[in-house]
Design brief:
This protein has 3 domains: 91 residues, Double Stranded RNA Binding Domain, CATH 3.30.160; 125 residues, no CATH class; 195 residues, hpI Integrase, Chain A (Orthogonal Bundle), CATH 1.10.443. The protein contains 15 helices and 8 strands. Helices cover 48% and strands 9% of the residues. It is mostly helical and 452 residues long. The longest helix has 20 residues. It is elongated and about 90 Å long. It has a 3-stranded antiparallel beta sheet, covered by helices on one side.
Length: 452
């Protein structure tokens, strides 16, 4: 029987090998027939000046593969070369890359892949900045040079436990600083705040990235779908951010206005307090996320310029919000319009009475650049008002104003589906985090007069 017919017959009979031994027999047959035909399936060689043997062979679709055999003994090199060649053939026939990749190699390729996606705008720009430090700080040190197709569910479980103790009793317990990339710049900060077990939310976020890495490895052919380990993603119980009661918000705004009108402070402090008062009012009247407020430009206030010459009661605006990788247009409460006017006048005063351009930020520093944070002045105000934490002891922050807006709208009877659309979230999220408010608005109906 011709050589091609023998191979075709043998391959057909072993199309779905049940054991590695059967497949090795087929590989040995192919190799032997190649030798009989005067062709070697692989070649071993030594590089000039080195006693270590290497192997090279070609795989269709992957080109020539070269790999060190790690020995200077020719007989041992022949055995290792044969084994590598058989393994490469087996992997190729099963839809995998011919040569195993270590986790480290695949992880570095994954980081580069995510950077490219971010550069092309296919994922959020901060994805690469967040993923690479995570991969380099935790994933690679644990899995390192282990072949990625040899990582099991048990390895993933051990990793999650190792990660929980990384900063307490593990490798990070003596580390004093963290280094990472933010906005293209390398940042270094103390690691003292990391000395704890990561929150369930952090564990879940990291597990999602690790699972994404393995899924990408499967797409590249380094592992099969069945070899993706079961990376546990801890369930995070709903934990609403702290909000404010109506009385607390009234107290906070009154104190903010009093501090803004204080003539004993210098112009710079008064300006910061004015911006903070406007920020709080606008946030409470719009429900915008801190990121959306930071990204807000004057051009995003639709119909605002056209209404400047009208009476306040005759004006109306829509707002275009940008953040979390999405954008939307929504309807704000009218009360916030006066604070936009305050910021408009402040901007003109700082720029020789020139009107802001559409591309100028609404919340800006004296030099016109975008304010990146109001946390310092907000924390000072919350401390002065004794409102830094809620009744559960949870710290309030800029996000709490969004929760106040949604809670107040629910109490006022705004339909949850309409509210979800206006705030850029889902009815399920509102039900999960604001369900207690939904019940509160039906208080009277839940207390019928049926008890004698």
């Amino acid at each position: 029987m011709p050589e091609g017919a023998v191979l075709a017959h043998f391959k057909h009979s072993q199309r779905s090998p049940q054991t590695d031994l059967r497949y090795d027999i087929w590989g040995m047959l192919r190799m032997e027939m190649s030798r009989v035909a005067g062709k070697e399936p692989y070649a071993i060689f030594q590089r000039p000046g080195s006693a270590v043997w290497w192997v090279r062979f070609s795989i269709r679709g992957e080109g020539q593969i070269r790999k060190s055999l790690g020995t200077s003994d020719e007989a041992e090199a022949q055995r290792k070369a044969a084994k590598l060649w058989h393994e490469a053939q087996y992997r190729k026939e099963n839809g995998l890359r011919a040569v195993q990749r270590t986790f480290r190699v695949v992880a570095e390729e994954f980081c580069d892949h995510m950077d490219r996606l971010a550069e092309r705008g296919e994922v959020r720009h901060d994805r690469g900045d967040r993923i690479r430090p995570l991969v380099e700080r935790y994933f690679i040190p644990f899995f390192d040079r282990k072949p990625i197709d040899a990582i099991t569910d048990a390895d993933a479980i051990r990793y999650m436990e190792w990660r929980k103790t990384f900063w307490t009793t593990g490798p990070g317990k003596d580390q004093t600083h963290l280094e990472y990339i933010r906005a293209g710049k390398r940042v270094r900060r103390p690691a003292t705040e990391m000395r704890c077990v990561p929150s369930l939310s952090s564990q879940r976020g990291e597990a999602v990235v690790l699972r994404q890495l393995f899924r990408q490895a499967a797409k590249w052919g380094y592992i099969n779908q069945s070899q993706i380990p079961d990376v546990d993603t801890p369930r995070v119980p709903p934990s609403p951010r702290p909000s404010y009661s109506s009385g607390e918000m009234t107290k906070l705004l009154r104190l903010a206005q009093k501090r803004m009108d204080d003539r004993k402070v210098n112009d710079e402090v008064r300006r910061d307090r004015t911006i903070l008062y406007a920020y709080i009012t606008i946030a409470c009247c719009t429900g915008m996320r801190p990121t959306e407020l930071r990204n807000l430009n004057w051009g995003d206030l639709l119909d605002y310029r056209e209404g400047l010459s009208k009476r306040l009661g005759d004006r109306d605006i829509r707002i275009r919000a940008r953040g979390k990788g999405k954008s939307r247009e929504f309807i704000p409460l009218e009360y916030g319009l006066t604070e936009f006017d305050r910021l408009w006048r402040m901007s003109k005063a700082n720029h020789e009475d020139k009107e802001p351009q559409d591309s100028d930020p609404v919340f800006a520093a004296p030099d016109g650049k975008r304010l990146t944070s109001i946390n310092k002045s907000l924390n000072a105000l919350l401390e002065a008002a004794n409102l830094k934490t809620d009744h559960r002891g949870k710290k309030r922050d800029a996000y709490s104003f969004r929760h106040f807006y949604i809670s107040q709208q629910l109490r006022a009877g705004v339909d949850v589906f309409v509210l979800a659309r206006n705030t850029g979230t889902s009815p399920d999220m509102i039900d999960k985090f604001y369900g207690q408010v939904s019940v509160e608005q039906f208080r009277d109906a839940l207390r019928p007069d049926w008890i004698a």
